[in-house]
Specification:
Layout (H helix, E strand, L loop, with lengths): L2 H29 L3 H29 L23 H8 L2 H27 L3 H35 L6
Length: 167
Amino acid sequence: MALKENLIISIKKAMQGEMDSVTLYQNAANHTGDPEIKQFFQSRREEERQHYNFLLKYYQELSQDLQPSDLSSKLKSVEDLHPIFSADFIKRIGQDQYLFSAISTALLLEKDAIEHYRKCGLETDSVTLKSFYDILEKWEIRHYEDLLNIQKEAEVHYWQKNDFEPF
C-alpha cells in the first residue's frame, strides 16, 4: 500500500476515535444536570472536536495531494492545563453509575488514541505530521492521566453507592 494511502487510513482511524470521544463526552454532559460536571465533559468534548477538525484538514489536504499544513501553533499547549477536581466533584462522579462508566470508557478511548498517535508519529516521514502527532499524543496522555485520577478517587464513592462490602 502506498505511503499516502497509509497516511489517509491512519488519519481516518484517528478521526473515528476522536468522534467516538466527542460523542461519549457529549452524552455524559447531556446525562448530568450538575453544572460543574457538565462543563468538564463539554470542555473535553470541545478539545476532542478540535482534534477531529485538525485531522479532517489533514485528510482533505492529503486527499488532494497537498502538503500538510503546520497546525501545531493552533493547538493549545497541554502544559497550560492544570485541572483541579474537588473532592465533591469526584464524589458526584463516583455516585453516578452512568458518569463513572463514561470515565471508564473514556480511559479506553484515550489509551487507544495515545497508542495510535505514537504509532502514526513513528510511521510518517513528514516532519509536520510527526510534530502534530506528538502534540496529540501529549494531549491524550494528559486526558488519560486526569481521567485515571478521577476514576481512582471516585471508585470509593462508586462502591459505597452500590453497597459493596468486601468479604
